[in-house]
């Protein structure tokens, strides 16, 4: 998978060299390129923001550097008839910006390139969305800062490729960088070959719609706390039943919203 990230804080993504994803990059499974949005400016101060039309607090990211960055990554529009010029710029409909598409279908695949703008105004990122995006050939992440990006950037990007606005959840971050790191980790670890033991992916929180069961290792007693006896008896049927009960009890207690309506 190829990933391009556009940001005004490129060093934020230095951490991608570490650990599991760093290995995937060395192995050629993941090809990540980070682009500094300011390299697509032309003024002395490398300005990326301006005051909002209509007034209001904060600053808005200007469209011109974003347009140039997207053209550099997606390829220039070379043909006057509007057909696509650049590498990876397959005609893919260009879904309307912010359109909510079904993500709970595990078999859905992403053809070609998708452009993702992290935004608290987007659809919420889920494990199902991570699974779907792990099938993409090419993901472009556009990290906004300040009060947001000029709306026309989303429309232009949507004229080139599929675009989605994606939120991590119902709270506010200062910019998209932390959200993109989280999304890349969630997506990257689902790409075949990134995780050594794919079976470890199966029994995780959210993969079966429930939270995961509690885990224990030696010693059997520690500081007066015992491991639940069912786990030490070697009865695999009883262990499976107990783990399922624990998953259901935990999910009912802290995440009842994940359970089907009764
Ligand atoms: Cl994706 N971006 C920002 N700025 N804030 C967020 C978010 C994204 N998701 C939750 N809060």
Plain-language structure description:
By secondary structure, this protein is an alpha/beta fold. It has 6 helices and 9 strands. It has helices spanning 19-26, 63-74, 127-133, 151-160, 177-188, 236-254, and strands at 2-7, 31-36, 49-50, 60-61, 113-124, 138-142, 162-167, 221-222, 225-226. The strands form 3 sheets. It has a 5-stranded parallel β-sheet with strand order 2-1-6-5-7. Strands 3-4 form a two-stranded antiparallel ribbon. A two-stranded antiparallel sheet has the order 8-9. The longest helix is centred in the C-terminal third of the chain and has 19 residues, at 236-254. The two termini are 40 Å apart.
Alpha plus pi helix count: 6
Q: Identify every distinct bound molecule in the structure, by name, code or SMILES.
A: 6-chloroguanine
**Mean of pLDDT:** 89
Question: Could you name the ranges where pLDDT drops below 50 across 5 or more consecutive residues?
Answer: 82-106
The order of strands across the largest sheet is 2-1-6-5-7
Question: Structural class of the secondary elements?
Answer: alpha/beta
| Portion of residues within helices | 25-40%
| Cα-atom radius of gyration | 22 Å
User: Which range does the strand content fall in?
Assistant: 15-25%
Organism: Subtercola frigoramans
Subcellular location: Cytoplasm
Main location: cytoplasm
Family: Belongs to the RNA methyltransferase TrmD family.
């Amino acid at each position: 998978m190829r990933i391009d990230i556009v940001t005004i804080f490129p060093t934020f993504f230095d951490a991608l060299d570490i650990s599991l994803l760093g290995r995937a990059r060395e192995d050629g499974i993941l090809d990540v390129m980070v682009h500094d949005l300011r390299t697509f400016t032309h003024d002395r101060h490398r300005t990326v923001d301006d005051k909002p039309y209509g007034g209001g607090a904060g600053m808005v990211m200007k469209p011109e550097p974003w347009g140039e960055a997207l053209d550099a990554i997606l390829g220039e529009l070379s043909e006057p008839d509007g057909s696509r010029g650049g590498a990876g710029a397959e005609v893919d409909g260009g879904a309307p910006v912010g359109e909510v598409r079904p993500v709970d279908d595990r078999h859905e695949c992403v053809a070609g390139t998708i452009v993702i703008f992290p935004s608290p105004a987007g659809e919420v990122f889920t494990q199902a969305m991570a699974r779907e995006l792990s099938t993409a050939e090419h993901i472009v992440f556009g990290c906004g800062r300040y009060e947001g990006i000029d709306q026309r950037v989303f429309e232009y990007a949507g004229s080139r490729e599929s675009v989605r606005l994606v939120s991590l959840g119902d709270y506010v971050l200062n910019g998209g960088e932390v959200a993109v790191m989280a999304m890349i980790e969630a997506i990257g670890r689902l790409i075949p070959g990134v995780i050594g033991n794919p079976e470890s992916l199966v029994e995780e929180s959210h993969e079966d719609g429930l939270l995961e069961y509690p885990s224990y290792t030696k010693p059997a007693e520690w500081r007066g706390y015992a491991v639940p006896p069912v786990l030490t008896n070697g009865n695999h049927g009883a262990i499976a039943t107990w783990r399922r009960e624990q998953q259901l009890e935990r999910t009912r207690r802290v995440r009842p919203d994940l359970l089907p309506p009764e």
